[in-house]
Amino acid sequence: MRARAAGLRVCPACQQVCRIPAEAATPPGCPRCGARLHDRKPDSLTRTWAYLIAALILYIPANLLPIMRTESLLGVSDDTILSGVVYFWISGSAGLATLIFTVSIVVPLAKMATLAYLTCRVRWPGQADRHQLGRLYKLVELVGRWSMLDVFVVALMVGMVQFQSLASIKAGAGAIAFGAVVVLSMLAANSFDPRLLWDNDGSPDDDR
Amino acid sequence: MSAVAEDGLCACPECDALYVRHALPPGMKARCTRCGTTLYRAPRRRSDQMLPVVIAALITFIIANTHPIVTLRAQGLVNEATLLASIVSLWREGQEPMAALVFATTWVVPLFDLLTMLFLLLMYRRAVRPPLYTRLLRLLQAIRPWGMIEVLMLGVMVSLIKLAKMADVLPGPGLWAFIALTVLLAVILSYDLRVLWQPSAPRQPETAPLGQPR
Ligand SMILES: [Zn+2]
Ligand SMILES: [Zn+2]
User: Where does the chain cross the membrane (chain A) (predicted)?
Assistant: First the structure.
């Protein structure tokens, strides 16, 4: 049995199940916490796409612009995300290079692609395995935050390396662009309503 | 005309399947038979057992922010670094948005989380909870995903490895406090906030299932 089919709505904040009076025109408030009781997250797909497109646009400067500038007696060097990975790789820290490559380059791209795919599966359900799709969404929600790693590394390096003329590190424009990509893709995942994946499976009741 | 609460029911947040609530033994959780999402759980730790953890986390939060994470030595120059000093450096060199982002995710949200948890746990057993309780619990649920202490911790490790190649790195008390804080926060985050919406006295188990949570 589905809550929607039973004429019930679930509070998005406290998950209280509520019966909605038939004459209610605007979404009423939750009797326990006061949050608006929408049937599904309002404009879920439109909002998800808006955040996704913004994140995708910023992903380009995030990767092309330097995230960090090191000034030392040896000169000035600019680092992008990719050059940081390469630096770790050639200096013998293959594990660290793989970690940073995964969280900074693979995860944001995979997250955006997965969310785009999920919104498409809502529009065109086909023969989708909803358990797999649901699991994909949970994974996307879980791993997205780890992409902030490079932003924090830059912030910490700026604070730690302040040796006047000897060496200093400054943050580059790529770092905040990258931070914005992570924030926007988290907002995109947040706007997506996973219940939409299960809404149009054809069966009126539980399928298991 | 307002909505009517159906207290005996519970619905899956991921797939909208509807269930009847059952009283669970401690440490058990009810999962959705359709998609496997955890619906609700009976926590292993009682709310008053969580209090010392929250207080300990607040103390480590203070230590972590008042002591240097690391002391760097290079060619006779010494630099002590704290998280807040790093954020101030970012702000001063014109990276205000980035400073604000780091400040919010590693300082404001975790501190708000701890202080709010302290308040909620203290008020949980009251027969009549203050109106602020509901508002704070809602707010905490909304902003908790933006607290990123565990990601910061990994960031500290990566930057220490990077720095060890250019200077002498001496770990400071702030570093150990951050490690302890990460562990304590993991314990606090594993305490399901949905428990705090329920009345503190256990209710009678319901009968007549619509679907059995497994
Ligand atoms: Zn509510
Ligand atoms: Zn479910």
Answer: 49-68, 88-118, 169-189
